[in-house]
Give the backbone structure.
Amino acid sequence: MIEALKARDWDAIVIGTGIGGGTIGRALAEKGLSVLFLEQGPKGYRREETPLDLAMADPVARHLRGFWPTPVSGRIGGRALEFFAPLGAGLGGSSVFYAATLERPEPHDLDHSAARPHPTGGWPVSYAELAPYLARAESLYHVCGEPDPLSRDPGALPPAPPPDPADRAPGAVGDDPRLAARPRRAARAPRTPPAHRRRAPPQPRQSPARPR
C-alpha cells in the first residue's frame, strides 16, 4: 500500500492531520484535488477518557497516548521556559483534546498598532485579510453560540441548537411522561440526636422522708 501511495502523483500533500491540516486538506479535496495526508503519530490509541498528563515525561508513553512526545520551549515575559504543552501528536492532532471550543482571534492578536503593540511587529497576514477565512471555518465547524461581549469583532454566530436527545442522561426528567410531576416520598431512618444534645429520661421525684 505504501508503494502505491508513493508511486502516485498527488495534487497536494498535507503534513500533519491536526485541526489545521485537516481543514486545509478537506478544502482542497472539495475542490477536486487529490490530497495525501502524512502523519507521524499513532491512530486509534486515544479516547475521550484519556486525560492530559503534563507531568508524564517519557516520550514513548506520551506518543502512544497521542501527546506531543517532547517538551516545547518558549520565552514568556523575558524568561526562557521548557514545558510539556497540551498538544496532540497523531491522527486529529490537538483537536482530540480541545474540548470543541473555537474562538476568533482579536485584531490585536495579529495586527500591530500604537495602541496595542504586537510583540513580533504583527503577522504577515492582517486580521482583515483573514476574517473571511475565519467565517468559512466557523461555518465548516458549525460554530454557534452567543457573541463574546468583550470582542470588537465577534462575528455573526447562529444560536446554539437544542441538545441532541442522544446526549441526554438516561432517565432524565422529561424523558418519560410517566415520571413527570409525580411526587415521591422516601422513607427516612429515625434521626439520632448528637450525644451532647441527648437528654436523660425524667426520673420520678422523691419527697424527703418526714421525721416521725
